[in-house]
Amino acid sequence: MSHKCEAIVVHCMDYRLQSYINQWLETNLGKTSYDRAVMAGGVFDVYDVIRQVDISARLHGISKVILINHEDCGMYGPGGTEKHHEEDLIEAEQKIRRIFPTLEVDTYYLNLDGTFEQKS
Ligand SMILES: [Zn+2]
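YS: structure for the whole thing
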């Protein structure tokens, strides 16, 4: 592995949130220490997420996974309550931990006002 980074960050494509996510990442991870997987719905399709985590782990030796879902996500539609997002985030975390036991996994729920709530 010729080059490494600390983490992979998985978040939704929704344009409304990108500036909040950019600021949060710069504050919490710096500018250049993470891979980024932009997926419609965040962890909505957990197997797509796992595939990206696997690639990031193999290519860049990450030690951490950061999963961010958000309020009013179009992929979830009207059923996208905070509770539903929290359940999906925790399920994704558990699946990732089972497959990649050495990786740390943090999950967040991002509100439309830009505030992040840590879920695990
Ligand atoms: Zn979304």
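YS: worth flagging: Residues 12, 14, 41, 70, 73-75 surround zinc ion (CB under 6 Å).
IM: good catch. Also The helical segments are 18-29, 46-60, 82-99.
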